[in-house]
Design a protein that fits this description.
five-stranded mixed beta barrel; disordered N terminus; globular; alpha+beta; about 35% strand; about 550 residues; seven-stranded mixed sheet; 10 helices
Length: about 550
């Protein structure tokens, strides 16, 4: 898509584009008017920003062959940031309380009118700015008092970085041009979810098709003016069964593209749904895995989640500034943290990688900074961190990774993570390495983690600095040549430094995890491109399970014969 600055479009735009320019103009004029007054107050504001998400969606949801929801939505929401004090110290600084820490957030989001009524928009911006300025001055006094009575901060860097503002404009998209026929897609969703109604073991299914057309606006008192589009189509299949011992067994499959024509065919999606259905039946009767420590292979799909959880969250700069954070990698720049042939980087600017669509892409982050490619690990050595406008020692500029839902203040978050190797192995070579390591450590088998649902991690120094990745499909690979055995009930657990020291090699196959990451600033879309991974030593534990019995009555359409 061709990008043009608004100053050029004013002379050539259509009526629809002119209306959108009017909205940006209203934002800019109001922020300057308000800032001029707030700069003259006894506690002056030194920075304001207005961030607006104008979102149109169409969501279709089906279950067991029937549509349960189909509707468009549209909203326009404003997030306002008010900073008082100075770049060196302002109202957003962490308040130190023993055992407690966190990000400053003023819950500063409101709904705006959908048309460009100047009076209504100006009034909303004025009232919200006035309210948040008063909150910011009170919080700044709390910061000053806290600094006076607590020990000096370990990290003496500023509270807010100084950046060069940019002006950027994309022509708005019309939902009529990018939203397909809803009735057609309702019929498709019926077909996809009907697959699961044909299996007596499946007790729950949810299939959805979601289109999101997001137009982002950003202006601030430094001179940034940004209007950017983000369009994505996502199909998700989910289904669940329950074993006789009460263990819930879910499976998920999703597809993400930027262009509707890039989605798989109906036949491919139905085939994937049938494969999921068959796997759920097999999982019901699979043996429950015991606690284990030993070698593991992770498919490319699984290793992306693994890297996201155990590494990605620990190189987000704003978190490394918090004194409640364990800061696992903060002092390890220049040290070997991965095998020497590994490189890991983030690049929010790319929409595809080797033809694979990525959902973690954007041009500008939610602080008005252009997203940049950041090499975090090069030849195994830690080089840098993801940075928002919260500086840390040695890294005083943002690289465009300040992100958050419109409801929250942005913090440092991941985007498109890509892991590459100069010396990838074949799948057969990796399997051989697994078996050799299992024999060396007197293990009867190693694990192949095929599919995962996600995970979570804890980075605080007041709790165990650990992670948990939740596998869904796991196989035992026996050293004596027996066929691989499907097992259930595996949870992958560990601590990051111990786990990273055991990563040995990766494969040639790559896959993508296109999902959502939930953290301090809400849920944001991310991607992880990763190869198959061999880890010499991991630890697993038994998965928790419900104590409820599976359904006693047979599913409608099936007899009670087992």
């Amino acid at each position: 898509m061709k990008k043009l600055f608004a100053v050029f479009l004013l002379a050539t735009c259509s009526p629809i584009v002119f209306a959108q320019d009017d909205f940006l103009k209203i934002m800019k004029e109001e922020i300057n008017r308000n800032f001029a007054v707030l700069q003259q107050q006894p506690t002056p504001a030194y920075y304001l920003s207005y961030r607006v998400y104008e979102e149109e969606t169409y969501h279709i949801q089906s279950s067991f062959g029937q549509i349960i929801y189909s509707s468009p939505t549209k909203n326009r929401m404003l997030h306002t940031m008010v900073r008082v004090g100075s770049h060196e110290m302002d109202n957003t600084r962490e308040i130190k309380v023993d055992g407690i820490g966190g990000y400053y957030d003023d819950f500063s989001t409101i709904n705006l009118v959908l048309d460009n009524n100047a009076s209504a928009l100006q009034t909303a911006l004025w009232k919200r700015t006035d309210e948040l300025y008063k909150n910011a001055t009170k919080q700044y006094q709390n910061v000053l008092a806290n600094v006076a009575v607590k020990v000096a901060a370990e990290d003496q860097s500023d509270d807010f970085s100084k950046e060069t503002p940019e002006k950027y404009y994309e022509k708005p998209l019309n939902s009529k041009d990018v939203f397909p026929d809803a009735k057609l897609w309702e019929e498709k969703l019926k077909k996809f979810s009907k697959v699961f109604s044909e299996n007596k073991d499946i007790i729950y299914t949810n299939c959805f098709f979601n289109i999101t057309l997001l137009r982002k606006y950003f202006v601030d008192t430094e001179g940034a003016e940004i209007a950017e589009n983000n369009l994505g189509y996502r199909i998700s299949l989910s289904a669940q069964t329950i074993a006789d011992d009460g263990m819930d067994l879910p499976l998920y499959k999703s597809y993400f593209v930027h262009d509707l024509k890039d989605l798989p065919s109906d036949e491919e999606i139905i085939a994937d749904a049938q494969e999921m259905s068959q796997m759920l039946t097999a999982l019901r009767v699979a043996p429950v895995a015991e606690a284990y420590s030993g070698p593991v292979l992770m498919t490319a799909e699984a290793s992306g989640v693994f890297f996201h959880e155990i590494f990605g969250h620990r190189i987000e700069g704003a978190r490394l500034k918090q004194e409640t954070d364990a800061q696992t990698f903060k002092k390890k720049v220049g040290e070997l943290v991965l095998p020497e042939d590994f490189t890991l980087y983030f690049d929010p600017q790319i929409k595809t990688y080797k033809g694979i669509p990525l959902s973690g892409n954007y041009v500008f982050d939610d602080e008005g900074v252009r997203g940049q490619k950041v090499t975090i690990v090069e030849n195994g050595i830690l080089k840098s961190f993801l940075m928002s406008r919260v500086p840390i020692t040695g890294f005083n500029r943002s690289n465009g990774h300040g992100r958050g839902m419109i409801y929250y203040n942005p913090v440092t978050r991941q985007s498109n993570m890509i892991i590459e190797s100069k010396n990838p192995k074949t799948e057969d070579e990796l399997r051989k390495m697994l078996i050799e390591e299992a024999k060396r450590t007197n293990k009867e088998y190693g694990y192949l983690i095929d599919k995962v649902s996600g995970g979570f991690t804890m980075t605080s120094r007041y709790m165990p600095n650990a992670f948990n990745v939740i596998p869904l499909v796991v196989y035992r690979i026996y050293v004596d040549g027996r066929p691989d055995e499907l097992v259930r009930g595996v949870d992958l657990v560990g601590t990051p430094l111990a786990m990273f020291s055991q990563i040995s090699a990766c494969g040639k196959n790559i896959d993508v995890f296109n999902g959502y990451c939930g953290a301090e600033s809400g849920s944001v879309p991310v991607s992880s491109i990763s190869p198959t991974l061999f880890v010499k030593m991991v630890e697993t534990q038994k998965k928790s399970k419900s104590q409820n019995q599976p359904p006693i009555l047979p599913k409608p359409g099936f007899s009670s014969d087992k």
